[in-house]
Amino acid sequence: MFRQAAAGETLVLIDPDQSYQKPGELFLLVAADVDGSAARASRRAVEASGARIGGVTPLSEAVDRLGAQAALDGVIVAAEGADVELLDRTIDSIGLLARERLARLIAHGGEREIDLLWARLGGVAQAILLDPAPIDIATAIALPRQRRAWHDVSRDEEQRLRQLDAEVARFAQTLARLSDPEARGAASMFGEKRPDDAGEVDGGARVPTAAEVRSVIRARRLRDAHFPPDLFADPAWDMLLDLYAAELEHRRVSVSSLCIAAAVPGTTALRWIGTMMDAGLFERHADQHDRRRAYVALTDAARAGLNGYFDAVGRAGLNPA
């Protein structure tokens, strides 16, 4: 199977005979550039998984090709470098045709395309990947149709995904507990000084300012200058803090912006976003003026938990981390 390359290391194929999917599964590859590196990565991932590429078609011909395709198990859209207007015109039809054929849909793109893909395919595609390596595409192919079923996943990937779900569940439980005013201490956050833009929430908890939350984020990023960045990777908390600060600033956050805030590879960040949505901590908001964009926001439960956390930390005389 594939091994994830470390920083600055070339990704190599360790075991090309390792098969994840049932032999013979047929995938159609739709690519903005059929000869580009993104299309080549998808081909390698499909072949390594034991499936087959039934055809490669440019994005401009994808709808006609899907409409004429008799048998199909999956569709992969490699959108990197796509003409945005063309992608905008065709992606809904690709998603609809894939659904009609009961074909799994996997889409990947760069920062330029990811917001459109996430906005339009977020409830349709099995996986949406940002700047994926072949290992990421192969993992998406390996996952069965039900996202939470594990029986077709490699042992290492199964363990990693279980850990991810367990961490998110722990976050959700902690935030829910902190949203309970009885679970918090009994002094005021950052002493008695209350900035003008600080507010009150249910139970008398003090809401921090956006600047205070941003200072916590900056302090977390300063660690990267002194230790390997992946040593303290904590994308769930980093994204929660970023969404919290943005909400306090009355600013909306796109999926591409949130991926950057996560401080992990894009595809890892997208996986966390999906898991946080499943856990009821994030929610999707459509852009009413631009169908090519959707935003990520905190749910009421996540907001209450963060309010409770910052209040509890302040009451204990501690600094948020």
TrEMBL record:
Domain HTH marR-type positions: 249-302
GO molecular function per UniProt: DNA-binding transcription factor activity
Species per Swiss-Prot/TrEMBL record: Sphingomonas guangdongensis
Full protein name: HTH marR-type domain-containing protein
Classification via SUPFAM superfamilies: Winged helix' DNA-binding domain (SSF46785)
Gene3D superfamilies registered for this protein in UniProt: Winged helix-like DNA-binding domain superfamily/Winged helix DNA-binding domain (1.10.10.10)
